[in-house]
Amino acid sequence: MCGIVGYIGKRDAVPILMEGLQRLEYRGYDSAGAAVVSGGKLAIRKKLGKLRELRNSLEETPLPGGLGIGHTRWATHGQPSEINSHPHADCSGDLCLVHNGIIENYQELKKQLQAEGHDFKSQTDTEIVAHLVEKYYKGDLFAAVQRALLDCEGAYALGVVHKDEPGVLVAARCGSPLIIGVGEGEQFIASDVPAILKQTREVIYLNDGEVAKLTSEGVIVTDLKGNVADKEQVHIDWDAEAAEKAGYPHFMLKEINEQPRVIRDTLRGRIAKSGDNVVLDDMNISDEELKGIEKIIIISCGTAWHAGIVGKYMLEEHTRIPVEVDIASEFRYRNPILVPGKHLVMSVTQSGETADTLASIREAQRQGVKVVSIVNVVGSTIARESDGVIYTQAGPEIGVASTKAYTSQVTAFYLFTIYMGRLNGTISSEKAAKLLAELQTVPGMIEEILKDQDVILECAEAYKEAVSALFLGRSYNFPSALEGALKLKEISYIHAEGYGAGEMKHGPIALVDDKLPVICVAVKSAVYDKMVSNIQEIRARAGKVIAVATRGDEDIHRHADHVISIPQISEMFSPLLVAVPLQLFSYHMAIARGCDVDQPRNLAKSVTVE
Ligand code: M6R
Known about the structure:
The protein has 610 residues and is an alpha/beta fold. It has 21 helices and 24 strands.
C-alpha cells in the first residue's frame, strides 16, 4: 500500500504534492519521491526514509514547475531503497510514473522488455510500466498509457508525466484506489481524499479499468480502449481527520473494514494461472529442501501467535507435517530441539520488529535451521533476516489492536499450506483448486458480515458493564476464541479468557453466572454438536450465551441469548469469517465504555523491547 499524488495547474506543484503526501503518509512510509516537468525537462527526486527527508531535500534544492507527481512508499516488491522508490522512469528518462498496487505479470513483461533492449534499474514491478509506456509512446502519453495497461495484469493506481507534454497528467486505476480532484484551472490526483482536501472538495472517483487525461482546463476519462466514460463529480464534506480514516471514526474500524481488500491483495498474484497451485516468490528455500521438512515450529507473539495456531491446524490436517506453535518469549529461553534440514521455523509478525520473535529466529538460524516468516512490513528486520518471506499485503496497520494483519496472516498460512501440500503430494491438484476457489470467496463473505452489525451492537449495549467475559471455540476456532478474548482485553479493559470449549469443565465453568457473557463460536463444523453441548452447560448455569453461528442454523437460537450469523463456509476457512464479528464486538464494547480504541492504555503497536 503506497500513497500517490499529482498536480497540474498554474501553481508550483511541489508544495501541493508535499502537503498531499503528508496526508497519505499513513499508507506507507519507507521512502518517498517526486517528479516535476518544467522547461522541457523532467526532474526526479527520491529519498529513503520518512517524508521529511524528501521535504528537506526539496527545500534545499527546489524543483519548480506546475506539473508534478509524488509518492510515499510501502514496499511490496524490492527492499526500501532510493533506487526502488518512485517515481520510476523509462530508459530515456523522458517519462516517469508513480504506482500503488502490484503488477502480477511483471516478471514475464520484464523478460520481454529486456529482450527488446530495455534497461531496468530497480527490483520493482512498477518500473516495467514505465518501460511499457516508453515502448508504446508515439507522441501521445494518454494513448501510450492506455495501450501499455492492456499488457498489465494486477492492481494499479498510476500517475504518469512526460517531459514533452507539460500540459498533461495521465492517471489510471485498477484495483487500487485513485481519485481526481477538480479545481479552478487546476486538477489533482490522489490515492485518497485527505491528500487533496485542502485544495478542493470536488472529486471524481475513477473506476477499475479507467484512464484519465488531466489538463489545467479539465478531465477526460476513458476505458483502456479509449471509449469516453461519463463521470459524475462528487462534493466531499468530511473534515480532514475523518477523511484520513476514510470517514470512519477510528483506524481500527477502518482496518476491520479493509479486510476484504487485504485478503484479496494477499492472494493476488499467488494463485497459479492453472488455479491448482500457489506461487510464493520470496521463499528463497528450494522445493527440494522444503520436501525434506519433517516438522514445522511456528513462533510469534500476541495476535500473530493466534494466527500461528490456525496455521498449525491447517498444516497438520492437509500436509500431515507435525507442527509446534510457540510463544516467541518462551521459545527463546527454553532449549528447543531443532534439527537442521528436517525442521523449519516459521515466524509470524506484522511489524517484523518484535524483539522476542526476532531473537527466536536468530536462535533458530544459529542452530542451522531455515526460517520462513509471514511478515507485513517489507524490509523490516525479520523480513531481511529470514531465509524466506511470505508478505501479507495488509498495508500499514495503525490501530494498536491487530485486525487486518491477523486475517492476512491466516490467509498467508492457507497459501503456504497448499504450497507445501502440493509439494509433498498430500494435496492433489483437484483438492488445491477446490480449496483456492473457496478461499477466494472469503472477501465477499466478509463484506456481507460487515453490512449487518445490529446483533453485535445489541450485545455491546447489553454487556458493556461486564467485568469479565469468556470466549469458547474448538478446533480451527479455538484460536478464534483466544483472539476474541485478546481483542476485548486490549481495547475495552474487560478481563476476558479464551478457551478450547472442551476445557471448560476443567476449571472455567466455575466462573459462569448470570452476569458472565460467554461468546461461543458454534459454526457448522465437525465439532458443532460438541459446541452445542458446551453451550447447554453454560445455559444450565445461567450464563449469557452469544453464539457466532452459521447463517440458516435455526436450532442455535434455542440455545443462545444472542446469535451473530455468518455465511456458510468450510470449517478450515471459518476463522477468517469468525474474526470479523469478534473484532467488531470488541470495538463496539470499547466505544460503549468510552475507551480509546486506537491507542489503548499501556500498549505499543510494535514491541521492540523484551
Ligand atoms: O508486530 P507483531 O505481529 O510481531 O506483533 C505481535 C503482537 O505484539 C501483536 O499481535 C499484539 O498482540 C497486538 N496488539 C494484538 O492486537
